Amino acid sequence: MKLAVVTGAAQGLGLCTSALLARRGFHLLLLDRQDAGTALAQLRAEGAAAEALCGDIASEPFAAEVAAWVDAHGGAAEVLVNNAGISLIRPAEETTGAEWRRVLEVNLLGPFLLSKALGLQMLARRRGSIVNVASVAGLAAVSHRAAYNASKHGLIGLTRTLAAEWGARGVRVNAVCPGWIKTEMDVEDQGSGAYSDADIIDRVPMARFARPEDVAEAIAFLADSERSAFVNGVSLPVDGGWVADASWESLRLKTRG
Ligand SMILES: NC(=O)c1ccc[n+]([C@@H]2O[C@H](COP(=O)([O-])OP(=O)(O)OC[C@H]3O[C@@H](n4cnc5c(N)ncnc54)[C@H](O)[C@@H]3O)[C@@H](O)[C@H]2O)c1
């Protein structure tokens, strides 16, 4: 069984990525803190082999439970996608210690715990691919997101470190850095009045949001041991050119046909 473990797979990018990996022949293990029953039903209706475990990725006992499940179902995952994450839009001076801690726990401690628990099994088999879902906010600052930015910059640091430590033992570790995607997270963030569709579309050289499928394709590429066999330690922007473009706004808008 070729197993892919995807966190935050009950909705959004995690569900879209799971569906794509299933179409590429992976057996899926979905992890989420919310019930993944609807996602499981959708995937199975599309012909996927999929199971789910419910828990908090920031919990060490949950990481151990996942590792035990994987051990009992073939010994090691081929792929781990650390996708689950939470957003926090708050001026730095208003961010509490508790908010900061929770964002760092979910977005950075969680990927570390699961990479360690499932990485040990991959290392024993000397093969595996870990893909971390960071963000353009891991490559550049977006105001009012101190904790989120720090967590995603940290995730890129973790990606590089694990790539350096584990590459020679057959385990590749990479990251994707999406721009804004139309998912439930975006709906919730826009609901707070933080930004509008136009703010994002005007800032992106390709003049649109990312589709979940755009990002899922990049994840599937990095997950694939043949197609990305010698790619290790990269943080791949999937952002329509956002971080590449330092143009001021009026100049960027002049480029629109
Ligand atoms: N939506 C965007 O614009 C965007 C842009 C860049 C990066 N990202 C990143 O992409 C990833 C997926 O985002 P999305 O837009 O699909 O978000 P989403 O909120 O739609 O889905 C996130 C999923 O993760 C789960 N989750 C959250 N905390 C968890 C925890 N502690 N344990 C287990 N599961 C947990 C949620 O229940 C949910 O199912 C995140 O890491 C996010 O930071 C999103």
In short:
The protein is an alpha/beta fold and 257 residues long. It contains nine helices and seven strands. Nicotinamide-adenine-dinucleotide binds at residues 7-8, 10-14, 32-34, 56-58, 83-86, 106, 110, 133, 135, 178, 180-181, 183-186.
State the strand order across the main sheet: 3-2-1-4-5-6-7
Say which CATH homologous superfamily is assigned: NAD(P)-binding Rossmann-like Domain
- Separation, N- and C-terminal Cα atoms: 49 Å
What name does CATH use for the topology?
Rossmann fold
Proportion in β-strands: 5-15%
Bound molecules: nicotinamide-adenine-dinucleotide
Give a written overview of the molecule.
The model has no long low-confidence stretch (mean pLDDT 98). α4 runs parallel beside α5 (146-166). This protein has a seven-stranded parallel sheet with strand order 3-2-1-4-5-6-7, sandwiched between helices. The N and C termini lie far apart (49 Å). The chain is globular, with a radius of gyration of 18 Å. The protein is α/β, with parallel strands linked by helices and 257 residues long. It has helices at 12-23, 37-45, 60-72, 97-125, 146-166, 184-191, 197-203, 212-223, 249-254, and strands spanning 3-7, 27-32, 50-54, 79-82, 128-133, 171-178, 235-238. It has nine helices and seven strands, in the order βαβαβαβαβαβαααβα. It binds nicotinamide-adenine-dinucleotide. Nicotinamide-adenine-dinucleotide binds at residues 7-8, 10-14, 32-34, 56-58, 83-86, 106, 110, 133, 135, 178, 180-181, 183-186.
